[in-house]
């Protein structure tokens, strides 16, 4: 069939079915006990604003992959390894994309681990790594906990999950609602998984974990109906201090600003935060800020949550949309200047860099 005609049919179908897909559910049974982000048909939805824009241009982009981010290898750095041998120290190491290795006083945490070459179900198509993992999985001293923000392929990678479990089979995987079934289908025992809804908490090792909202989405299948069948969000990790208030870290996951109310609620409950992990990539052209925060918005979140230190993520590793590779750090530098945030307070580590925390 003529590709132009195909495109027109595709757009028409999208306009018919996607316009304001947000919170509209026909024939829904109203249940006062059902949280607003749980739709009656089993899907999930952002509830912070009532109507999403028509997603035509973003869908079109995925059909015309030219002019995507041009990837090139960034430097991988070494140093500060002594922090991994000091059981009283806390550090975060950027592996790449949204993968951080946090060693919090001898308790090892991986965030959205992806060590694979492709962020894709098939290891020869899809977004390909521009820079190898900053540290290999085998080099990490210990992994006790893995936190997963959502099921997108650049955040939930089957090969990495399997390797982590094979190496540390006492590890706990903390996942959003309906993601446990995916891990179980990969052979991860249910005893190794905790699954939470927004605002639910659980104790794991020395930490109290709370799964918190983020304005985003989820999808692993080809069909549009597979979108939003599992929940998405971020994690707040709290650890009791020897004296004074507990120490808190917020892994934001993949997030857009939305109307800001989710993050205001996080700030009201948890601020001030000791450390926040915030995204600075995949936000150009501006229509992508429907699902991703710009560096400036992440700088605003840093201020809103009174974060003592924020570390950048979700950039420089996989070419997801159309920003240039260097845009994230550059735009963050501009935002820091305008918002009066120091470079070390919202820091952009290099791949492999071990950053001391909670000092
Ligand atoms: Zn995502
Ligand atoms: Zn992502």
What gyration radius follows from the Cα positions, in whole Å?
A: 20 Å
The chain-level mean pLDDT equals 89
- List the total number of helices: 8
For the report, how would you describe the main beta sheet? 7 strands, mixed
SSE topology string: HHHEEEEHEHEEEEEHEHEHEE
Share in β-strands:
15-25%
Q: How many structurally independent domains?
A: 2
Overview of this structure, please?
- It is a single chain.
- The protein has two domains: 3-63, no CATH class; 82-357, Metallo-beta-lactamase, Chain A (4-Layer Sandwich).
- 21% of the residues lie in helices and 18% in strands.
- The chain is globular and about 50 Å long.
- Helix 7 packs across helix 8.
- It has helices spanning 3-18, 56-63, 82-85, 158-167, 180-185, 261-270, 295-304, 327-339, and strands at residues 90-96, 99-104, 108-111, 145-147, 172-176, 193-196, 201-204, 207-212, 234-239, 247-251, 275-279, 309-313, 346-347, 354-357.
- Residues 3-28 have low confidence and may be disordered.
- The protein is an alpha/beta fold and 359 residues long.
- The chain contains eight helices and 14 strands.
- The chain has a seven-stranded mixed beta sheet with strand order 6-5-4-3-2-1-14, with no helix packed on it. Strands 7-8-9-10-11-12-13 form a seven-stranded mixed beta sheet, with helices on one face.
- The structure holds zinc ion (2 copies).
- Residues 150, 152, 155, 216, 254 line the site of one zinc ion.
